[in-house]
Amino acid sequence: MWKTPAPASPAGRPPGGGPLLAVENLHVEFVTRRGVVRAVNGVDCALNAGETLAVLGESGSGKTVTAQAIMGILDTPPARVTRGTIRLRGTDLLGLREEDRSRIRGSRIAMIFQDALSALNPVFTVGAQIGEMFRVHRGLSRRDAERRAVELMDRVRIPDARRRVHDYPHRFSGGMRQRVMIAMAIALDPEVLIADEPTTALDVTVQAQIMELLSELRRESGMGLILITHDLGVVADAADRVAVMYGGRIVENAPVHDIYRAPAHPYTKGLLESIPRAGGKGRALRAVEGSSPDPMAMPSGCVFHPRCSYRQDDCAAGEPPLHPIGPFRGSACHYWREVLHGSHG
Ligand code: SF4
Questions:
Q1: Total domains present in the chain
Q2: Is the entire prediction scored with pTM above 0.85?
């Protein structure tokens, strides 16, 4: 039985009863020829029904690996979950047999991938690929599955669905292919939808349309949405809460407005200073200096310390935990007060 969470959990647990999805102390490693890569190092996060959690970070921060672990699609080997739990409405997914896990995949937790063209099979029509979900998971006939595919294509606003259900993926634009992927992902009414950089390959106008579609579907169905992105612009409009990842850890977790108003981790603050913002006319944009840590040789102590302008002598010694710093808010920085209140070092 799931215990009611503490109200001010730094993992950003939302108010109300137990979360829909709860990830606790998740560790994922890859065994490579060069050695062991610790890609995810103690991630805690939670998602409520009907909310959008944005997981934000540079490439290599561990956000996609976390999503793959939740979805149960890590390559095994070389990847392995070494510690932690992933609970869906209280059931630990990591404790399930693979056949039970695969029943959940697609029906209760679904995922949209970044590159719709390579995720779709070029030799089958989109109708056959969407309909496959109903045939495999619901046992529908080919004809009924196609009818459901047309309904779904209408729902994700692909024009002329009745005719286009017979088209192959290459006949669709990038935005329309992403709509096909979304149709497949929502086919079985999942409780959790993970969207991994769903708009990266699309132009700005189409990006906005896809994000609006995802928000609308979330509102209508009440599913929880995990939005994985490196794009702060996407986060501002779409998310309720944000988990910022760096070096395989969540370094800040907060309601979206708190993060934008007053970040409490130097990395989050650096990310915000690197993008143009409304009302920021005349403000110089600054990139976060340095590069992501080598996962084979993580820095000691605070993993961000080689790049941090708030760094103090003790930062390289002790790894900061995710301190609870407010309602549903946490920061993994020893000096979060200085960052939050704007004083420097
Ligand atoms: Fe920077 Fe130290 Fe905070 Fe790490 S703990 S983010 S190095 S100030």
A1: 1
A2: yes
